Amino acid sequence: MKVKSFVKLAAILFIVLVTLFVASIFFANKKVATQVEPYRPWWETLEPDAVVGEKNYYSRSCSLVELDTQSEHPLPETIFKPPIRLIASCRGSDLIINKNGYLIFSVCRVDFGGGGCGKERYRSSDMVHWQEDIGTTWIKGEQYTAWRELGSTSSKADAVSRVE
Q1: Average pLDDT of span 101-118
Q2: Which of 30, 63, 112, 157 would be 87's cystine partner, CB 3.0–4.6 Å?
Q3: First-to-final CA distance of the chain
Q4: CA distance 68 to 126
Protein backbone atom coordinates (compact mmCIF):
# COMPACT_ATOMS: atom_id res chain seq x y z
CA MET A 1 0.00 0.00 0.00
CA LYS A 2 2.75 2.44 0.99
CA VAL A 3 4.69 1.69 -2.21
CA LYS A 4 1.67 2.46 -4.44
CA SER A 5 1.09 5.76 -2.63
CA PHE A 6 4.73 6.67 -3.01
CA VAL A 7 4.66 5.92 -6.78
CA LYS A 8 1.52 8.03 -7.23
CA LEU A 9 3.05 10.89 -5.24
CA ALA A 10 6.29 10.69 -7.26
CA ALA A 11 4.35 10.71 -10.57
CA ILE A 12 2.30 13.75 -9.49
CA LEU A 13 5.44 15.55 -8.31
CA PHE A 14 7.18 14.76 -11.62
CA ILE A 15 4.27 16.12 -13.66
CA VAL A 16 4.14 19.31 -11.57
CA LEU A 17 7.91 19.87 -11.93
CA VAL A 18 7.83 19.34 -15.69
CA THR A 19 4.88 21.72 -16.02
CA LEU A 20 6.68 24.39 -13.97
CA PHE A 21 9.85 23.93 -15.99
CA VAL A 22 8.03 24.32 -19.33
CA ALA A 23 6.08 27.33 -18.02
CA SER A 24 9.27 29.01 -16.77
CA ILE A 25 10.94 28.58 -20.18
CA PHE A 26 7.87 29.93 -21.94
CA PHE A 27 7.61 33.02 -19.71
CA ALA A 28 11.37 33.61 -19.66
CA ASN A 29 11.40 33.80 -23.45
CA LYS A 30 8.52 36.27 -23.43
CA LYS A 31 10.44 38.65 -21.18
CA VAL A 32 13.62 38.78 -23.25
CA ALA A 33 13.55 41.26 -26.09
CA THR A 34 15.24 39.46 -28.94
CA GLN A 35 16.92 41.25 -31.78
CA VAL A 36 16.87 39.21 -34.91
CA GLU A 37 19.51 40.02 -37.46
CA PRO A 38 18.23 40.13 -41.02
CA TYR A 39 18.96 36.99 -43.00
CA ARG A 40 22.05 37.26 -45.16
CA PRO A 41 22.77 34.52 -47.68
CA TRP A 42 26.18 32.88 -47.42
CA TRP A 43 27.34 34.26 -50.77
CA GLU A 44 26.91 37.89 -49.71
CA THR A 45 29.84 37.59 -47.32
CA LEU A 46 32.19 35.95 -49.85
CA GLU A 47 33.98 37.10 -52.94
CA PRO A 48 33.25 34.82 -55.90
CA ASP A 49 36.09 32.51 -56.95
CA ALA A 50 35.35 33.28 -60.60
CA VAL A 51 33.06 35.60 -62.55
CA VAL A 52 31.89 34.82 -66.09
CA GLY A 53 29.54 37.39 -67.56
CA GLU A 54 26.69 37.90 -65.08
CA LYS A 55 27.35 34.67 -63.19
CA ASN A 56 29.41 34.22 -60.06
CA TYR A 57 31.05 30.88 -59.31
CA TYR A 58 31.93 29.65 -55.85
CA SER A 59 34.15 26.71 -55.08
CA ARG A 60 32.59 24.84 -52.15
CA SER A 61 34.16 21.87 -50.34
CA CYS A 62 33.47 19.35 -53.09
CA SER A 63 31.14 21.13 -55.47
CA LEU A 64 30.91 24.10 -57.79
CA VAL A 65 28.07 26.56 -57.21
CA GLU A 66 26.74 29.07 -59.74
CA LEU A 67 24.87 32.25 -58.83
CA ASP A 68 23.13 34.39 -61.46
CA THR A 69 23.60 37.97 -60.24
CA GLN A 70 21.06 39.41 -62.69
CA SER A 71 18.18 37.50 -61.13
CA GLU A 72 15.86 39.49 -58.88
CA HIS A 73 16.09 36.73 -56.25
CA PRO A 74 19.38 34.97 -56.92
CA LEU A 75 19.55 31.37 -55.78
CA PRO A 76 22.72 29.31 -55.76
CA GLU A 77 22.70 26.21 -57.93
CA THR A 78 25.20 23.37 -57.63
CA ILE A 79 26.30 22.84 -61.22
CA PHE A 80 29.08 20.31 -60.72
CA LYS A 81 30.08 17.64 -58.24
CA PRO A 82 33.02 15.40 -59.08
CA PRO A 83 32.40 11.66 -59.21
CA ILE A 84 32.35 9.91 -55.85
CA ARG A 85 35.52 8.06 -54.86
CA LEU A 86 35.18 5.31 -52.28
CA ILE A 87 36.82 5.93 -48.92
CA ALA A 88 37.91 9.44 -49.91
CA SER A 89 36.90 12.81 -48.55
CA CYS A 90 37.22 16.31 -49.95
CA ARG A 91 39.58 18.68 -48.19
CA GLY A 92 39.14 21.73 -50.32
CA SER A 93 38.82 22.98 -53.84
CA ASP A 94 40.10 25.69 -56.13
CA LEU A 95 38.71 27.45 -59.16
CA ILE A 96 40.43 29.33 -61.98
CA ILE A 97 39.61 30.55 -65.47
CA ASN A 98 42.38 29.90 -67.96
CA LYS A 99 43.18 32.07 -70.96
CA ASN A 100 41.30 29.71 -73.33
CA GLY A 101 38.01 30.39 -71.53
CA TYR A 102 37.84 27.14 -69.58
CA LEU A 103 36.73 27.12 -65.98
CA ILE A 104 39.06 24.69 -64.20
CA PHE A 105 37.83 23.18 -60.93
CA SER A 106 40.45 21.43 -58.78
CA VAL A 107 39.53 19.18 -55.87
CA CYS A 108 41.82 17.94 -53.11
CA ARG A 109 40.85 14.40 -52.09
CA VAL A 110 42.28 12.50 -49.17
CA ASP A 111 41.97 8.72 -49.12
CA PHE A 112 41.19 7.06 -45.81
CA GLY A 113 44.50 6.14 -44.18
CA GLY A 114 46.48 7.51 -47.12
CA GLY A 115 47.09 11.07 -46.01
CA GLY A 116 48.19 13.74 -48.42
CA CYS A 117 46.11 15.41 -51.09
CA GLY A 118 45.36 13.87 -54.45
CA LYS A 119 44.48 16.72 -56.83
CA GLU A 120 41.76 16.05 -59.37
CA ARG A 121 41.05 18.63 -62.06
CA TYR A 122 37.95 19.14 -64.17
CA ARG A 123 37.23 21.73 -66.82
CA SER A 124 34.31 23.09 -68.81
CA SER A 125 33.67 25.98 -71.14
CA ASP A 126 29.87 25.78 -71.02
CA MET A 127 29.24 24.43 -67.47
CA VAL A 128 27.35 21.48 -68.97
CA HIS A 129 29.99 19.29 -70.61
CA TRP A 130 32.88 18.48 -68.29
CA GLN A 131 36.28 16.93 -68.90
CA GLU A 132 38.67 15.40 -66.38
CA ASP A 133 42.44 15.72 -66.34
CA ILE A 134 43.92 12.28 -67.08
CA GLY A 135 47.58 13.23 -66.97
CA THR A 136 50.41 14.63 -69.00
CA THR A 137 51.36 13.75 -72.56
CA TRP A 138 54.17 14.87 -74.83
CA ILE A 139 53.69 15.85 -78.46
CA LYS A 140 56.76 16.71 -80.54
CA GLY A 141 58.76 17.43 -77.40
CA GLU A 142 56.15 19.77 -75.87
CA GLN A 143 54.20 19.05 -72.69
CA TYR A 144 50.40 18.87 -72.83
CA THR A 145 47.63 18.09 -70.34
CA ALA A 146 45.32 15.33 -71.57
CA TRP A 147 41.58 15.76 -70.98
CA ARG A 148 38.87 13.09 -71.27
CA GLU A 149 35.07 13.56 -71.32
CA LEU A 150 33.74 12.94 -67.84
CA GLY A 151 32.23 9.47 -67.60
CA SER A 152 34.14 8.11 -70.60
CA THR A 153 35.93 4.79 -70.12
CA SER A 154 38.30 5.38 -73.02
CA SER A 155 42.01 5.52 -72.27
CA LYS A 156 42.50 8.09 -75.04
CA ALA A 157 42.35 11.80 -74.50
CA ASP A 158 39.45 13.69 -76.07
CA ALA A 159 41.39 16.96 -75.95
CA VAL A 160 44.83 18.24 -75.03
CA SER A 161 45.98 21.64 -73.84
CA ARG A 162 49.53 22.91 -73.94
CA VAL A 163 51.18 23.42 -70.58
CA GLU A 164 52.79 26.83 -70.31
Answers
A1: 84
A2: 112
A3: 92
A4: 15
